[in-house]
Amino acid sequence: MKTNKRMIALVLALSALSLTSCAAVQALARGDVGGAIIEAGKTVGEIAAAAIEDCANGKVSQEYTAEQEYYIGRGVSGAIMVRYPATEVNSDPRRRQLAYLNQMAGYIEAMSYSVDRRNLGGYVDRSEEEWERQSRFGLYKGVRVGLLESNEVMAYATPGGFIWISQGAVNMCQSEDELAAIIAHELGHIVMNHGMDAYRKATEGKITDSKAFQAFSKEMGPVVGNFAEMVGGFADNLIESGYNKDQEYEADNFGTRALAAAGYDPNAMARMLERVEAYEKSHKDDDKFLSNHPDPKSRIEKVKDLIKNPKNNLKAPAGDPGRTTREKRFREVWGR
Ligand SMILES: [Zn+2]
């Protein structure tokens, strides 16, 4: 019963997104660099209708499907873009930058299937049932990366495969491998399902008990109001606080292994985190996100230990024959 209530809340509000947050959906469509975002209202409406039918027929399980997670991620992406505008894709160099980011992310994601997800250091507690689910995890439409205009150093991962990287974070990186490290880390949050963990916690027991929800639901109907609040709350939480420390360690661990699996230098994860650390030192006072985020020092140490352990076999490729190509490509694409 609880599941059905929650599911109905979810699917109705997914359709509500196109009714209530036009700005968010438009921003999302504009920022969808993969070009695969399809007539939001229609598609979301169809999925909502199908899911409601499933609820009525008792077919809905406890688990969100990859498709549902994708639409949740789109909603959250819309909310992120309301706060931080996506970079306009209005020139060939811009298009090339976005293609570059998306090709890199798609490649790392494909290669990361060889990373043993059960062997990531055990930072996040999971039941056997959750591990089972984790081992079957796949993305509905792959991973896609968008750029945010901001010069602050930021990167976000939403459920369902969306990664948002700020211009500031790109500028911070001094090589393709460091930029790949940001993508691999964010991919870790997605693959290890950290967003949905938070989302499940955030939506539990919130059907009727909030004042904001009650006010909104007078106008829009209860389930619609509930979803708008859920996605908005989730996005706020992601923007203000990020993921928790254990989730950060797990994403670093997965990301370092994914980097090595894709032929990048795994040490780039530590180098990237050292740049974040330096940036934080000079910006802590005026950056709300950073002041809520875990200290990179312990993360850097864990990544270095991980690479040092010969059991993990995380060496930079011998002689690294691709390095020159990567360096040249990075400089060309970003005009450095
Ligand atoms: Zn993270």
Give a brief outline of the structure.
With 336 residues, the chain is mostly helical. It has helices at residues 2-20, 22-31, 40-56, 66-83, 92-111, 128-135, 167-172, 176-191, 194-203, 211-220, 222-241, 245-261, 267-283, 288-292, 296-308, 323-334, and strands at 144-148, 155-157, 162-166. The longest helix has 20 residues, at 92-111.
Question: Would you mind describing this structure in some detail?
Answer:
- The chain is mainly α and 336 residues long.
- The chain has one domain.
- It has 16 helices and 3 strands.
- Strands 1-3-2 form a 3-stranded mixed β-sheet, sandwiched between helices.
- Helix 10 packs across helix 11.
- The radius of gyration is 20 Å and the shape is globular.
- The N and C termini lie far apart (57 Å).
- Bound molecules: zinc ion.
